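Incident review: delayed structure delivery

Summary: a single-chain prediction request sat in the queue longer than the usual turnaround. Root cause was a stuck worker, restarted by the on-call engineer. No data loss occurred. The affected request and its eventual output are reproduced below so the record is complete for anyone auditing the incident later.

Affected input:
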Amino acid sequence: MPSNTSPTPERFSLLIYLFALLLGVGCGVLHVLLETLAEPDPLIPALAVTMATMLLGTMRPQRPWRWVLLVGAPVPVVMWAAHFVLPSAQFTRAAIAGSLLISLPGCAGAYGGSVLRRKIVQIFYEDNEEELQPPERAADSTAPKR
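Output delivered after worker restart:
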């Protein structure tokens, strides 16, 4: 049975996870601050979640679903906590449940960042197959066939 672990262990994985949670809490605080305004804009926190997950997906392209969970999950938790802590915050249960939808753009960001990182590595850091061929093989492939 093939394992899903990478061949080399990730360095500083606990710090990256804490950084992801911090970004998620920051996106949640941004969402709460914007919801308390007279004219809230729900797209700004969604953009912040997308940017955070894309950054994390680019930094660590393996298993990008974890960035969606670590950045998207704190947003409704922060809204729920603000509902009890801040007297001026009047969030309904529907608004708190709707904040779960903020993780959907995070999916695009995390997987987009992962694909971006893999393509950058593929284009710029892996050797080109033509350079690896011996010179006589390269000459044979350009000669016309009879």
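Verification: The first helix runs from residue 13 to 35.
Action items: add queue-age alerting; document worker restart procedure.
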